[in-house]
Design a protein that fits this description.
Blueprint: E1 10-15, E2 26-31, H1 34-43, E3 50-54, E4 70-81, E5 87-103, E6 110-115, H2 134-147, H3 154-159, H4 162-172, H5 177-185, H6 189-204, H7 209-213
Helix pairs in contact: 2-6, 4-6, 5-6
């Protein structure tokens, strides 16, 4: 188990639109570009094995050079190589971070100095959402899945604890990258759930979710 004090000052960055990683969640990834294969090789040599997932920022700004300033670091917990040299990996979400300065160097992939301050909540065993009305939420989710013709294991969703349910849906549902960023930056599980509900409601009404997040 990685403690906050053991986190490195620099992390490799993997900008991937729409790919959301959250603390205490798992994200499968398929690596095939040479720069990201090099990133994986270098990451596996480190004691922490962390990769920072970030969303590209079309508005630019900050020291991230076209990246959102807040991302989430995941530890490589599984990896397997295909016959043609690609890799399937799994990242376990550890903590969010804030990009301080991007590092100019000789690696083909991007790296940055980061701050872990302000994300102490990410190291708690599990987060609770005491205001969660699960019945109403499941009714909304059922309508959302019906309208978008999605399928799922409803029994597994009903049995999942609050954090697993909310975080898994935040990661898996097909929202825009800017909306995914809003879900990532939610300060607590209750805020993430409220944001998720808003996005689903606006989608059902035919609204533009991006207007909600501005």
């Amino acid at each position: 188990m990685i403690k906050q004090g053991d986190l490195p000052e620099t992390v490799s960055l993997f900008p991937l639109p729409g790919a959301l990683l959250l603390p205490r969640s798992r994200l499968p990834l398929h690596l095939f570009e040479p720069r990201y294969l090099a990133m994986l090789e270098d990451t596996l040599k480190t004691p922490h094995r962390l990769i920072g997932m970030v969303q590209p920022n079309p508005m630019g700004g900050g020291d991230g050079k076209g990246l959102h300033s807040i991302g989430c670091a995941g530890r490589v917990t599984q990896f397997s190589e295909t016959e043609d040299g690609r890799y399937m990996i799994t990242l376990a979400g550890i903590s969010r971070f804030r990009i301080q300065t991007e590092i100019d160097g000789f690696t083909p992939y991007r790296r940055a100095e980061v701050s872990w301050s302000g994300f102490e909540r990410d190291f708690a065993p599990c987060e609770k959402d005491r205001g969660f009305d699960r019945g109403m939420f499941m009714q909304l989710l059922t309508r959302y899945f019906e309208v978008h013709e999605l399928r799922t294991d409803w029994e597994a969703l009903k049995e999942a604890d609050d954090e697993l349910l909310i975080n898994s849906l935040s990661m898996l549902l097909g929202f825009d990258p800017e909306d995914k960023q809003a879900l990532l930056e939610a300060p607590c599980l209750a805020t993430r759930r409220e944001t998720l509900v808003t996005l689903m409601e606006f989608s059902l009404r035919g609204g533009d979710e991006r207007e909600v997040m501005q």
